[in-house]
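Predict the 3D structure for this chain.
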Amino acid sequence: MATAVSPIELNFTGERVVPGAVEPDLWNEHVSRYHFAASLAAEKTVLDVGCGSGYGTELLAASARTAIACDISPEAVQYAALKTSEGKFLVASASALPLPSECIDLVVAFEVIEHIPEWEELILESARVLSDQGVFFVSTPNKLYYAETREGVGVNPFHEHEFELEEFRDALGRAFPFVQIFGQNHQESVVFSSGRRSGDGHAFVPESNDLPNSHFFVAVCSKQSLAIPSFAYIPSTANLLREREHYIQSLQSELEEVRTDRANLLTAHRQLNCELEHQNEWARRLDRELVEKNSDALRQAAEIGIISVELEKLQSQAAELKHALESVRHSFWLRLGRMLDIGPWTEGRLHLKRIGRRIQSSPLTRYFVGPWSLAFHVLKSCMAFAVLAATALIFAFEDLCFFWFGKQRLGKESRVSQVAASVIITNWNGRLLLESYLPSVIAALSPNKRNEILVVERIIRWQR
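Done. Predicted structure below.
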C-alpha cells in the first residue's frame, strides 16, 4: 500500500528514468524489460530492486498478487510511492534486502548491478529471498558495445562495474544453477496487427550467433529448470516504411534548403573574394608608394650626410683661418707696428693727412707759399716715398719673421682629410625594406672607403 508523503520531483540525470522526461527510444528501452518480466508476474509476489521512479513497479503490480519495491534513495522512494497507486516501497540497499528468505516469487533488478560496488551481494541476496520456483530477472549494458558508444565522452561516472557476456554468465552461475541470457536490441520487424492491444501472440525469432554484440544483456535465473521463450516489445504499430518515406522526404526538403543556402554562401564568398582582391590591390599600391617614399628618404639621408661632411670641412677650414688670423694679430711685429703707428690696423696715414690739412689751412702758410712751397712739396714727396719704402720693408720683414717664427702649424690629426659621409638609417619599416634598398645606398657610398652607414633599430620599452 502507498504511504502518504510530501510532494517531490525527480530530475532526469541520464541514469534514473523519469516518465515524460526522456526521449521515446530510451523510454522503450527501459519499459520493455518490465513488460518482459510482467509475463511471469501473474498472481506472484514480486520485488523490484532499484525501483527508481516506480513506473516498473506499477506495471508489475497490475498482474502480481503483491508488489514490493526498494531503492537506496529516499527521494526516489517518496516519489514512487506518491506516483504509484499500488505496491509497498522501502528504502533499502540492494546488497542487504530487509526481507526474509524464500518469500519472493519474482525479483527484478534492471540496470542496477553495474551501479553498486557490492554487485556480488546483490546476486546472493536475490537468491536468498527467492523461493524454489522463483525467477530472478537482471539486466546490464554490454561492456564492449557500451565502450564504443561512449568513446568520445569517456567512461560513465555512475557505473562501478561493467560486464562482458561470459563474465556476466559466470557471476550469475555461482548463485543460480540455471541461467539463460537474452540479448536486448532495437531490431526491425514485420507486425500483423488487428489494431487491438495484445499481450500475447505468436512470434518468429530467427536463430542468431550475435549475442556477445548485443546492446544489453537480460538474464533470467532460477533454481529449477525453466523454459523462457523469446520476447518482442512493439511500442507502436504504425507503418514504419511510410514513416521512413515521410522522413526521407523531409530530409530531401532540408537538403534542398541546404543546397540553396550553400549556393547563396558561395555567391557571397565570391563577392567577398572580389572585394578582398580590390583591398589587396589597394594595399599593394600603398606598399609600393611607401617603398618609393622610403627609398627617397634613404637617398635624402645619404645626401644630407654628404652635405653635413662638406659643412664640417668648411667649418674646420674657417676655424683654421680664424686661428691663423688670431696668430697674426697677436704677433710681436704687429704689436711693434702699432707702437710706431705704422702698418695694418693703425691710423698713421690718417694722422699725417690731418696734419697736412692743418698746415695748409694755417695763416702762416701764406708767408711760405712762395719759394718754400716747391721745396716743401719735394720734401713731402721724398718723405712719403721714404715712409712707403720703409713700411714695405718692415711688412716684408714682418711676414718673413711670421712665416718662420709666428705661424702655428696644425697637426696631422687635426687636418681635414678627404670628404667622407656617415649615413644613419633608423630601421622603422622592417627588415624587408632594409634588404631591398640598403644595397643601393651601399653602392652610392662605396667609391670612398671612408664613408660609413649606421643602421639603428627602433626599440620601444613599455613601463608599467
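Confidence is low (pLDDT under 50) at residues 1-6, 460-464.
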